[in-house]
Amino acid sequence: MTKEVIVEKINDFLVDEFEVDEEEMSPEADLKDALELDSLDFVDLVVAVESNFGVKLVGEDFVSVKTLQDFYDLIERKLA
Fold it and tell me: Which residue stretches of the chain have pLDDT < 70?
């Protein structure tokens, strides 16, 4: 799966399932603050990633994830 497809799929489910404003979604956007995701949303995010990509995420995976770009990179590494 290409990086572009990963980014597109993530952006799609963030807009559809988390009601994130597309205009707020830039690679530099803070995943928690700019996108207004709370701790419950992160649980739902793990479920969405599993259903869309078939990979499991755990809390430790998010330690270094601050921006949307970090999240894209995390999913790309998990799929490698």
Answer: none
